[in-house]
Amino acid sequence: MSGLEQLYQQIIMDHSKSPHGYGLTEGDVTSHQRNPVCGDEVTLALRWSADGTRVEEVAWEGSGCSISQASASLFATLATLAAEDAEAGNAWTPDDLQAFIDEFREALRSRGQIPLDEERFGDAAALSGVSKFVARVKCAMLAWVAAEDLLTRKAAGS
Amino acid sequence: MTLSPAPYAGGVTEAAPFSSAELEHIRAQFPILRRDLHGHPLLYLDSAATAQKPSRVIEAEATFYREANAAVHRGAHTLAGEATELYEDARGTVARFLAVNDDEVIFTSNATEGLNLIAYAIGNASLGRGGAAAAPYALREGDEIVVTELEHHANLIPWQELAARTGATLRFIPVDDSGAIDVDAATGVIGARTRILAVSHVSNVTGAHSPLETLVPLARAAGALVVLDACQSAPHLPLRPRELDVDVAVFSGHKLYGPTGIGVLYGRAELLNALPPFLTGGSMITTVTMEGAEYLPAPQRFEPGTPRIAQAIGLAEAIRFVDELGFDRIAATEHQLGARLLAGLAELPGIRVLGAGIDAPRVALASVVVDGVHAHDAGQVLDNVGIAARVGHHCAQPLHRRLGVTASLRVSAGVHTTADEIDQAVAAIAGVRHFFGLTGENA
User: Fold this and answer.
1) What are the Aminotransferase class V domain coordinates in residue numbering (chain B) (predicted)?
2) Best of A14, A34, A38 to disrupt the B interface by mutation (most B CBs within 10 Å)?
3) CA–CA gap between residue B332 and residue B337 (Å, rounded)
4) Whole-number Å distance between alpha carbons of B422 and B343
């Protein structure tokens, strides 16, 4: 696979064309993240369980390059799959989510040294290829940074 | 040193474009062109962001550090004297390049600083600094500053801030649906209240020449100062602030094959000597007491602190480089490249070129939007074959917003660009939609 094909894997192309989790509703608590370099935008919401301990759904809207949009879609998919497995206790707690964000960031900043674990990240592991393209890491991080911002605000009680 | 006489004044030229042998000779002077990107020879089409440097510029800067480095305008040792002479020689080279006087040339760190310098000097005059001499330039409520809708942020935000500080109003001349400055609308914007017109010489997004022949007389009739952002013209056209009848012109060194960290502000001598300083400190004063200071005339008034000595010397070498190539021949070559680029792009389905059509006067630059593909993704496809092109809003968000896009892909030529490279870029752009699975007219 050429570098370009590693970056634009079919999964990424598919998610950028048919995004998952797209669509916010009134009342969503959102974080808006923007890449000032290219104008990519992602506005993301974490929808929590009634007791506020688990992520039931990730919803988002945005515009921009295929990497930024596919990454938001793949993040939403990953959260949904975990929530659908909720009876097994797999829906994300704040700590689970933070662990995913940390691992994602570490892999994306590794310049191709650390691949995303396919067992944990599922289809989102296709974003591993981005880490060799330093200028694109910020695109892929947008949705995840939005989620982190929401976590920080939740922890601060706002 | 003397620069060659420069009778060529811009526009259509009869001069011959560079021959292939001449282009080879030019290209050989740019060491970076020998490197590869992803297994392809580097094809650099981002000169509008920053130009590559010929060896002689790199050497001029290094030679200064190796052989003559000293602080200028202070100290009495021999080295200090030599460094001062080299620095002031560089100023003289810039002055002859612009056909202005030496003391009308201020070295800044870049063009952005030049625009802030003039905006802050006027802002300080508006606060009463500079006394009676500066008073005619003071702004107050009811005064208007006029820009255009296609300005680079560097020629917009300093004026927004100046308006906010002084109570003046910022107005703009709109662009039409193609992205060209709406000349007819200008008469309704520039008027009796206009105190400053700030406009770019050539757009960094569309590559089009601004209609200065219309805008400047309107500003003159209103008694307004005219500030020219010449960043995108200085590398391509002869820049003659006096012939253009502008009061201030700024450009950056790094877009003109010179070093980063150096820019130039030209200002009419009586304007510069009437305005209070922007940045203050050492090397710009006559007398300092604990209560206040008196300032030297321009250029020292606007060059506080240790200046950018090596960078100024590098810039002077870059100016000698383009001067020896000859602006008439640069313009003739780039005109052909620009026409080839625009004609090639016009053939491609699903590609929109921002700005007026092929026939509008322009430099060899084009920004395109690929239908269905974000500029960032399009740029990645070019990068994959070694083509360095710019993606994003090019520091012109309002223009992109006006044209209904958030970002575009820009290719821009330099003196080392060949027709074959333009063809390769057009072919690579043609391949973008294919790569993303969007082929055919209706995809």
Assistant:
1) 44-424
2) A38
3) 9
4) 11
Nearest to B302 by CA among B256, B257, B259, B248: B248
Tell me the residue range of the domain where B396 lies: 20-52+326-435
Residue B403 covered by a domain: yes
ipTM attached to this prediction: 0.89
Q: If phi over 0 gives left and psi between -120 and 50 gives alpha, with beta otherwise, what is residue A142? A: alpha
Query: According to the model, what pLDDT value does residue B7 have?
Result: 46
Residue B267 near residue B246 (C-beta atoms within 8 A): no
Angle B283-B289-B291 from CA coordinates, rounded to 5°: 120
The answer for residues whose C-beta is within 8 angstroms of residue B197's C-beta and 6 or more apart is: B146, B147, B190, B215, B216, B218, B219, B224, B225, B226, B227
Query: Domain extents for chain A?
Result: 3-155
Region B239-260: mean pLDDT is 98
Domain tally, chain B: 2
Beta carbons of A38 and B397 less than 8 Å apart: no
pLDDT tens digit sequence for B24-37: 999 999 999 999 99
Q: Is B38 on the interface with A (CB under 8 A)?
A: yes
**Residues B243, B214 contacting (CB under 8 angstroms):** no
**Residue A150 amino acid letter:** L
Return the CATH number of the domain spanning residue range A3-155.
3.90.1010.10
Tell me the per-residue pLDDT of B288-306, one tens digit each, with 9 for 90 and over: 999 999 999 999 999 999 9
CA–CA separation, A53 and B116 (whole Å): 51
Per-residue pLDDT of B73-113, as tens digits, reads 887 899 999 999 999 999 999 999 999 999 999 999 999 99
Q: Is B395 a catalytic residue?
A: yes
The residues, any chain, with a CB within 8 Å of residue A133's CB and separated by 6 or more, are A3, A7, B380
* Nearest CB to A38; choose among B381, B384, B407: B407
B436 touches chain A (CB under 8 A): yes
